[in-house]
Design brief:
By secondary structure, this protein is of the alpha+beta class. It has helices at residues 58-65, 79-82, 97-112, 164-175, 208-216, and strands spanning 4-7, 27-32, 43-47, 50-56, 85-90, 115-130, 138-140, 148-150, 157-162, 178-181, 188-193, 218-234. The chain has two domains: 4-121, no CATH class; 122-226, no CATH class. Strand 8 and strand 9 (157-162) form a beta hairpin. Helix 1 runs antiparallel to helix 3. It is globular, with a radius of gyration of 19 Å.
Length: 241
């Protein structure tokens, strides 16, 4: 049995207790990832009718299933964040993303015997604020269109037509702690940020905190505040299949 808390920042907060009536994958395979290949990065692939997750942890699967845009979910070694699996699942080709995530929740409950509940805790968070100098932001007209946010193309974050609230949420996904917008800026902006996305593997390159300050003229201030969390009450290693 494993018990641990993970920060929940997505709106999808359906817990394992609501399993009855939840959709399931047509076929799903869960196998331990080969130890010889554990050094490689995790890989998520979603195609119509098929999901493939290679070299993923249970925490990563939970982040995917419940919309938890947080990395890392743990700062200490445990089976949830060290044991890795390969998951291949088949779903109806016309299934929506929301339906597929419910299917992944079902898989976690069935194969990993996951049980959890929701709490609110006082935890470390960050405030995104304006720095000592004027913000270095490229303002664009707010025409009502949705923001475009990418994590490739030569930048760790490349966003168009993004609000500061959406930027805070995006930064949160990389930092691991909750980030709230306290800039007071209400416009829309085009933003690009380059930083070292995994400091645990390399100390070289710009940190996300430095990139925000140097590139945008903003600052991430550390503080504490109420945060929704999911507490894992029980989880087991799955049987090979």
């Amino acid at each position: 049995m494993v018990k641990a808390s993970i920060v929940a920042v997505g709106a999808l907060m359906i817990l394992a207790q609501g399993q009855a009536g939840r959709p399931e994958f047509e076929v799903a395979s869960v196998k331990p990832h080969s130890a010889a290949e554990n050094s490689g990065p995790a890989a998520f692939t979603r195609e119509p009718g098929r999901l493939t997750y290679m070299n993923v942890t249970v925490r990563a699967l939970m982040r995917e299933a419940w919309g938890l845009k947080v990395y890392p979910l743990s700062r200490g070694p445990d089976a949830l964040s060290t044991d890795r699996y390969d998951v291949i699942a088949k779903a109806p080709p016309d299934a929506t993303k929301e339906q597929v995530m419910l299917m992944l929740q079902s898989l976690l409950v069935e194969r990993f015997k996951l049980a959890a509940h929701r709490e609110t805790k006082e935890l470390p968070i960050y405030k995104l604020v304006v720095g000592k100098t004027a913000p270095k932001l490229h303002a664009v007209a707010d025409d009502g269109s949705a923001p475009e946010i990418n994590h490739d193309g030569g930048h760790q974050i490349a966003a168009k037509h993004i609000s500061m609230e959406a930027l805070a949420s995006t930064l949160q996904g990389f930092i691991g702690d909750k980030v709230i917008d306290a800039t007071g800026l209400t416009g829309r902006y085009d933003v690009t940020l380059d930083f070292n996305v995994d400091e645990s593997k390399s100390m070289e390159g710009t940190t996300i905190f430095e990139a925000v300050q140097r590139g945008l003229g903003l600052k991430l201030e550390s503080t504490k505040g109420p945060v929704d969390v999911i507490v894992i009450d029980h989880v087991e290693k799955p049987s090979a299949n």
